[in-house]
Amino acid sequence: MTCVIATTGAGRSDLKFKPKRGTMLELRFAAASRPKKGETVNGDAFFLREFDENALVVVADGLGHGEAASVAAQKVLEFAERNFRLGIELEMFVRGCHGSLMGTRGAVVGAALVNKEKERLSYVGVGNITALIKTKSGTSHLTSLGGIIGYNLRKLRRFEYSFRSGSVLVMCTDGISRFAPSEYDFTSLESTAKRILEEHGKDDDDATVVVVEAI
Fold first, then answer.
1. Tell me: the pLDDT tens digits for 122-146?
2. Which pLDDT score, from 0 to 100, does residue 16 have?
3. What is the C-alpha radius of gyration for the chain, rounded to an integer number of angstroms?
4. Strand 2-6 vs strand 152-153: parallel, antiparallel, or unpaired?
5. In sequence order, what E strands does 52-106 have?
6. Are strands 27-34 and 2-6 parallel, antiparallel or unpaired?
7. Range of the domain at 196
8. pLDDT in tens, 41-84
9. pLDDT, tens digit (0-9, with 9 covering 90-100), for 103-119
10. Mapping DSSP to helix (H, G, I), strand (E, B) and coil, where does residue 136 land?
11. Partners of 52 in the beta sheet?
């Protein structure tokens, strides 16, 4: 996996696992994240971990902004760091995040699991994390359900998608305004993530965009 991160204290990744070319998908990864204008801490966070034939990608947005939002988002990262293998069962992973965030302001969370052997992507989203898969044939928006992790967790549902070579997963917090993926070529993931953040990041909110490409 290739990873380039442009961020302000928002993310964690582990790139130790290197799949053998030809046996499963390889992934490229980039992220761009920054706090609300005028804030020194980021209420958004992201996490990436490869294990076995899988890759777990998580984006969290603590409610509001500032220190309390950052505490909630960081607790998602801490839980993911300790329990990333629960990503095999995404519903269980998200329920674990919910328990870990009890007593905090709460957060919205999107969690994606890429199975690089089966070329499939599973997704569980709670709240308004934007997630989509861009392919040569078009864009598919991933489904999230309502709720707040750590406060009001409603029904969870895991959605399954094809994720073949050339597919690009994009996940954003609501600090990124709506944009058209077709306007970006994703040749350089780092440049694309930074450009989306610069062009569509809202000044009055924390903002994060994560991009994962299958090659």
1. 999 999 999 999 999 999 999 999 9
2. 40
3. 16
4. unpaired
5. 54-62
6. parallel
7. 2-214
8. 999 999 999 999 999 999 999 999 999 999 999 999 999 999 99
9. 999 999 999 999 999 99
10. coil
11. none
- Read off the CATH number of the domain in which 162 is found: 3.60.40.10
Angle, CA of 120, 173 and 152, to the nearest 5°: 90
Place of tokens 């760091």: 81
Give the integer Cα–Cα distance in Å for 43 and 10. 8
Q: How many domains does the chain have?
A: 1
In one-letter notation, the amino acid at residue 122 is S
Q: Which residue in the block uniquely carries the two structure tokens 């996490």?
A: 47
Look-up: residue for tokens 């000044």? 203
Compute the residue count for the chain.
Answer: 215
Per residue, the 3-state secondary structure of 100-117, as one string, reads: HCCCCCCEEEEEEEEECC
Integer angstrom CA distances of residue 86 from 45, 146, 181: 19, 22, 31
